Amino acid sequence: xxxxxxxxxxxxxxMAFALFVCFASxxxxxxxxxxxxxxxxxxxxxADKPTRAAKLAANELALHLFKISGAQLxxxxxxxxxxxxxxxxGRSDWTDKAGVAVDDLKKDMYKVVSGDSWLALVGHDNDVxxxxxxxxSPADRARIQAEWEKKTGKTWRAMGLSHFKSYNKELDIWEIxxxxxLYAVYDFLRGLGVEWYxxxxxxxxxxxxxDIVLPDVNKTVKxxxxxxxxxxxxxxxxxxxTNEVLWHFRLGLGAGIAGFGHSMQVILGDPNxxxxxxxxxxxxxxxxxxxxRGGKPCLSSEGLFSNMLAYARAYxxxxxxxxxxxxxxTDGFSVMCQCDLCK
Length: 343
Description:
Blueprint: H1 2-30, E1 33-36, E2 39-40, E3 42-45, H2 52-69, E4 75-76, E5 85-89, H3 93-97, E6 110-114, E7 118-123, E8 125-126, H4 141-152, E9 167-168, E10 173-174, E11 178-179, H5 180-191, E12 195-196, E13 204-205, E14 212-213, E15 218-221, H6 241-250, H7 265-268, H8 273-276, E16 283-284, E17 287-288, H9 302-318
Parallel strand pairs: 3-4, 3-5, 5-7
Antiparallel strand pairs: 1-2, 1-14, 6-7, 6-15, 8-11, 9-10, 12-13, 16-17
Helix pairs in contact: 2-5
C-alpha cells in the first residue's frame, strides 16, 4: 500500500512536469517576433508623406535593430506580405486602421502600443514651416534685421538672426520640429537595453541578441518638463554636428527657450545704444563696459528694463505660440555694476 501511494505520487509529479513543459512550449511557440534567429520577421511602416521626425525615427529604429540583432528590417510605406508583423512609426493610415489615436497627444507626447501583429510607435509630430521672417543663412541677417526694425520701429537686434543654426541638413530636421514619434522609438529601444552616454558610437551601449519579441504594451508618455534643452548641440553643419543632434534627441531633449543665452544683447547690441544710452551698461571704475562680450548690463537702468519688457512683448506679438522668452546677460557677468543704484 505504501509503495502504491509512492508510485501514484511520482506519477502525479511526472504529469505535472510534463504539463508544465507542454504549456511552456506552447507559450514559446505562441510568441510573435520582430526578429527571430537574426532574421527579420517584421517591417517598419511609415506614411506616404511622413513627418521629418517620423522619417528619421524609422531610420533610427532600423539602424539600431540591425546593430542589436544583425537583421535588416525594411522601411516601407505599406505593410509587406512577406512578414507577419508590422512596426508602425508615426501616424499613418495604418495606425488609424489599428485604432491608435493621436489626437489626444500634445507637444512631445507619444504612445507605444502593440496588437496581435503590429507595434505602433507614434507621437505628436509637427514639421516647423519656416517663413520669410526666418534667417536662412549668415548672409540673410541683413534682411532679417531690416524687417525687424521696420516691424518694431526700433533698432533692437532681431531675435531670429541665428535661426539657420537650428536646422541639420544631413538629418533634415529642425531643433523645434515636434518629434513625438522619434521619442517613442527611443523609448522602445531603451526598453531593449540600448543606452547613449556620448554622441557617436563610442557612447553607445548596444545589447546583442538574435531574437526580439513583439512586446505586449500599451502606454502613453507625457514629458514631465516642457522645456528640455542643453546648449551643446549645434544643429548647423559645423564640425561633428550630426552625432550631437542625434544625441540631443536620444536623450529626449527638445527645443530651447527663445533668446536663451545672452538675450540682453538684443538691447545692448543695438548699434545706437552705446552712444544714446550709455546708462544701459554696467559702470566699472567710473567707465561703462561696452565691449566685454558685447557689454555688461546695469540692472538698475530703467531704460534697459523698459526696453527688454517692450522687446518681450513684441516677440510674443510676433510669436503668439511661444512658451517663454528668456532674459539673460552675456557670459562673464560676475561683477555687478558699481553705479549708485546697483550698489
